[in-house]
Amino acid sequence: MNLDHFGMDTITLAGPLEAKLRAVKAAGFTQIMLNATDIVGHPDGESAAIAAVRASGLRVTGFQVLRDFEGLAGHLHAYKVDVAKAMLEMCRALGSSILLACSSTSAHATGETDSLKTDLQKLALLAVPLNIRIAYEALSWGRYVNEFPQSWDLVQEADRANLGVCLDSYHILANRTDLGLLPDIDPRKVFLVQLSDFMWQELRSPEDRIDTARHFRVFPGEGVHSLEVAELVRQIDGMGYRGDYSFEVFNDDYRQLPLPMVCERAKRSVKWVSDLVSRRSLPLRRTSTSRG
């Protein structure tokens, strides 16, 4: 495991898209996670944003995020299908093979399993002609799906080749989900792993989880849950996952720092994570018994 296995998320960085891409490339990263706002919010338009990404030479880890898609009916469902189609087209234009979809928080959505399963099947079907995979992520404040065992159950129920799960350390830690359930997941159906930590032990309410998630995450190795993040990475690696890791770090302080400084913190985090996995893979050293 090395720097090539990790990507940064543009959400961590301040400034225009081109400056973010240059800083990430200069730090030695080879991939970047993009947000829809990077594209539609570009001052010169969507085409200029796509051209900048392609010219950067960075591989796009994934494109995010489709929200509140599943469980809706009637005109609300039709509206979300239109949104999904537009995001899938942007995803393809950027050269990304993964669209991230997070579990619904909508008060208008049903939690009925068949409806959720059918909607995820439809989303996966829409993505097939574009050669895009859907990574379904359980938000820790999701209305019906808020832990990875639930997202995995739905992915299994939907049973589509291009539908898998995204595992996000923040949401797993925030809900204190049992890491012992990770081996239940087929590693071939883990399409993306997002890593971050945070600076306090307890998150006492959904509002607290949301606020921390959107403003106070830190890179792995900088927070107070290092043991849990380490165990998460060890288990995912031990399962046989060999895909990408992305640092999804929403942090207001980082967005006030120079880009090279933030990228350097990310590189230190890569070393921290990589050292964990390297130590795990080392064979046990035999102790020799001296004979006299």
Structure overview:
It contains ten helices and ten strands. It is globular and about 50 Å long. The termini are far apart. The protein has a single domain (3-280), classed as Divalent-metal-dependent TIM barrel enzymes (TIM Barrel), CATH 3.20.20. α5 links the parallel β4 and β5. Helix content is 43%, strand content 16%. It has helices at 17-26, 36-40, 46-56, 74-93, 113-127, 148-158, 169-174, 206-215, 226-239, 259-281, and strands spanning 6-9, 31-35, 59-66, 98-102, 133-137, 163-168, 190-195, 197-198, 217-218, 245-247. The strands form two sheets. The chain has an eight-stranded parallel β-barrel, surrounded by five helices. Strands 8-9 form a two-stranded antiparallel ribbon. α1 packs parallel to α3, α5 crosses α6 and α9 packs across α10 (259-281). It is of the alpha/beta class and 292 residues long.
Instruction: Write down the secondary-structure element order.
Output: EHEHHEHEHEHEHEEHEHEH
C-alpha-based Rg, rounded? 19 Å
Percent of sequence in beta strands: 15-25%
Report on the biggest sheet.
8 strands, parallel, barrel
Strand order across the biggest sheet? 1-2-3-4-5-6-7-10
- Overall, the morphology is globular
Question: How would you describe this structure in keywords?
Answer:
292 residues, alpha/beta, TIM Barrel, eight-stranded parallel β-barrel, disordered C terminus
